[in-house]
Amino acid sequence: MLRGMGFGNNTYIFLASGKIYNAEKTMAPLLDMFPNLQTKQMLASEEELAPYKV
């Protein structure tokens, strides 16, 4: 969908979801198209994420 809207592979994507089941496999196509994908775990410290842990 993002490609269809004209977004190129230099687009930064910030993914705010929780842990993704089997992420290595399921996210591979998205990471191939958009290598600048970032998650909250990549951007925030463990201390910053602590209040949101279940």
From TrEMBL:
Residues spanning the signal sequence: none
The keyword Lipid metabolism is annotated on this UniProt entry: no
Keyword Ribonucleoprotein (UniProt): no
One Pfam family here: O-FucT
MF term (GO), any: glycosyltransferase activity
Biological process according to GO: fucose metabolic process
Highest taxon of source: Eukaryota
InterPro entries from the UniProt entry: FucosylTrfase_pln, GDP-Fuc_O-FucTrfase
Bilayer-spanning residue ranges: none
Keywords: Carbohydrate metabolism, Fucose metabolism, Glycosyltransferase, Transferase
PANTHER family: O-FUCOSYLTRANSFERASE FAMILY PROTEIN (PTHR31288), PROTEIN ESMERALDA 1 (PTHR31288:SF10)
Family (UniProt): Belongs to the glycosyltransferase GT106 family.
Name of the protein this chain belongs to: O-fucosyltransferase family protein
Originating organism: Gossypium davidsonii
Lineage, opening ranks: Eukaryota, Viridiplantae, Streptophyta, Embryophyta, Tracheophyta
